[in-house]
Amino acid sequence: MGTGSASAVSQYAKDDVEAIGLVKFDFLGLATLTILELAKDFIRARRPEHRDFDYDKLPLDDPKVYRLFAEGKTEAVFQFESRGMQGMLREARPTRVEDLIALNAMFRPGPMENIPSFCARKNGKEPIEYPHPLLEKVLAETYGIFVYQEQVMQAAQILGGYSLGGADLLRRAMGKKKAEEMAQQREVFRAGALAQGIAQAKADEVFDLMEKFAGYGFNKSHAAAYSLLAYHTGWLKVHCTAEFYAANMTVEMDDTDKLKVLLEDAKQFGIGFEPPDVNRGVYRFEPVDDRTVRYGLGAIKGTGQAAIEAIVAAREGREGSGGGPFRSLFDFCARVDRQRINKRVIEALIKAGAFDLLHGERAELLASVGLALDWADTQAAHADQAGLFDFGDSHAASTHEPALVAAAPWDVKERLTQEKTAIGFFLSGHLFEQCEAEVRQFCRTRIADLADSREPQLLAGIASDLRVVNGQRGRVMIFKIDDRSEVIEAVASEELIDAHRDLLKEDELLIVQGRVKLDRFSGGLRLDVAQLWDLAGARARFGRYLAVAVNGMPLPLRDLLTQWPARKLHTDQGDLAQGLGVRLKLQRAEATADLDLGDDARFWPCDEALARWRSVAHQGQASIVYG
Q1: How far is CA 624 from CA 189, 426, 564, 581, in A?
Q2: Which residues pair with 469 in a beta bridge?
Q3: In the chain, at which end, N or C, are there fewer CB atoms within 10 A of the end residue's CB?
């Protein structure tokens, strides 16, 4: 008996149900159906030309949709979003819904071995052959390859003379692989084939082929239903792109990893995002125009649907506060129902940037939350008191908003780090942006441009999702490196973990060198790390020298070299100095001179050291020369 329901629910094993003559049905709950319904609502609300939009009326021969599949750009497209599926689509280049059905059915253990032949036959690179000429009409749509259970049954009917019911019993017997039952069925099939003039050897050959595929053949009706949903989601991605992403991100708003993937994929399709905003946002993601999606406030960690609905109600005047846009943090706290929001909710909204258009300094906003809530309480108490005792306003609390609490502005890293705690990833920027221009002078390969290669690759990016696991060769650290172009999974050995424990941290810039190989589990690329550096270490390793303009100015060289000395690396060959050399540049109208200070003047090029060199250089001209 379901909770709160008068419906009786019972469950029996499928074999028992079928044994008493009942039909077994499988009911599957699919998030894709919710996504399609949400997208349809968005389309009807925003596009006047599609007020009667209906998926059943979509043509199934849209070349733009099949181009999407053929190019493997199927992130968030039902059943076709994995890397393996995307690779298969690029190889197969489907041009009709029947191709999608077949590929959907084959992408599973067993029939997967036929995918290369299917793709080659479809694209004219391999001749199409049939086990017997009579089976051409059965196997033509799959280019001569058994893919579906229904094809096995049809083959039994055509070649073996089976009835439809008998063919279904044969399919079941083949799936169970019971030797005695299969021997009996083989004799029945031989006899039926012989009646049509088919020799026993050929009949056995076809029977063996049928038996092989019946064991893992997929139900075509199932594959067709799934592929129709896949086509519909593909159509949305091509023709109603903003609605497609808004619907997907609304359904996935509790999964920040998935949201990040969708966000990056959306950008590849030209979709921009309005940042979270307490004056415009609602709980879910919503399309603003053909190329813009408004970020859903419900996707901010620590908020919740009740809190966001209270914000929208206050903004729309449904809370008795008059409505309209919020003017300030104080106005927000005074107008939104305090039973449904609290300090934690407001802090999460600030960190996510939802108050940026009211005040640009998030640090000051965050420092002022307590003050704003206290002020709002005071205003509410005064309003209640004024309602009871209308003695004029001589003792009334001031309705004038106080100033925000002064706080030091966050730098880019702090702002983005706080933003990540609220959203789950960087939305308004990326930590790699701060150093990308310098890093690309010595690390030119973007992660998005990588390919499986035997040559060592030098990469740079922001580390995330670090975790230590016990592998066959001891402990290893698995983490992700993100350079804004793409993300790659990296693996560091126990030796590297111990040597660089201070570098392997969340949201830190890492420069790594290693070999890239195909990860068979995920279908993507994976980096086996051999060496790694932070930015200062990479400057020392890949920089040639620091060029410092002097023009006759005296420099505190001893202080500079003493405060940030080169580091010693202990090796079997002795100690090696790790640091960056210095070259002084003197310019005069009649001549230019460079003075290399030599190995004894190497220093450790951390950010603080470089800032100090620039402060004493002529016109601040001190820069690292790479290459």
Answers
A1: 80, 29, 16, 10
A2: 476
A3: C
Vertex 119, ends 117 and 124: CA angle to 5°? 95
CA 272 vs. chain centroid, Å, equals 16
Write down how long the chain is.
627
Whether the CB-CB separation of 492 and 416 falls below 8 Å is answered with no
- Segment (H or E) for 363: helix 362-367
Q: What is the three-state SS of 529-563?
A: EEEEECHHHHHHHHEEEEEEECCCCCCCHHHHHHH
User: Could you please report the per-residue DSSP string of 428-462?
Assistant: S--GGGGTHHHHTTT----GGG----SS-EEEEEE
If phi > 0 it is left, if psi is from -120 to 50 it is alpha, else beta; for residue 16 that is alpha
For 437, other C-beta atoms within 10 Å of its C-beta total 8
Q: How far apart are CA 606 and CA 608, in angstroms?
A: 6
Return the half-sphere exposure (C-beta side, CA atoms, 13 A cut-off) of residue 544: 9
Asked if residue 389 has pLDDT above 80, the reply is no
| Alpha helical stretches, state H, 123-240 | 136-139, 149-160, 164-176, 179-194, 200-214, 220-239
Long-range contacts (CB closer than 8 Å, 24 or more residues apart) made by 550-558: 550/584, 550/585, 550/586, 550/617, 550/618, 551/586, 551/587, 551/588, 551/618, 552/586, 553/616, 553/617, 553/618, 555/584, 555/616, 555/617, 556/616, 557/597, 557/601
Angle between helices 97-106 and 83-92 (to 10 degrees): 130
**Cα dihedral 548, 552, 557, 559 sign:** negative
Q: In what order do the strands lie in the sheet with 543-549?
A: 592-596, 582-587, 543-549, 622-626
Q: Give the span between the Cα atoms of 193 and 188, in whole angstroms.
A: 9
Q: What is the pTM of this model?
A: 0.82
557-582 residue pLDDT tens: 999 999 999 998 776 666 677 899 99
- CA triplet 65, 71, 76: central angle to 5 degrees? 70
pLDDT in tens, 390-439: 544 444 445 789 999 999 999 998 999 999 999 998 999 999 999 999 99
CA triple 119-121-124, angle to 5 deg: 110
| Cβ neighbours, 10 Å, residue 187 | 10
CA dist 557 → 184, 366, 588 (Å): 95, 43, 22
297 neighbors 323 (Cβ within 8 angstroms): no
| Helix (H) or strand (E) run with residue 33 in it | helix 31-46
Give the gyration radius of the chain's Cα atoms. 33
Comparing CA positions, the residue from 410, 409, 381 lying closest to residue 397 is 381
Task: Return d(Cα 541, Cα 626) in angstroms, integer.
Answer: 10
Is it the case that residue 509 has pLDDT exceeding 90? yes
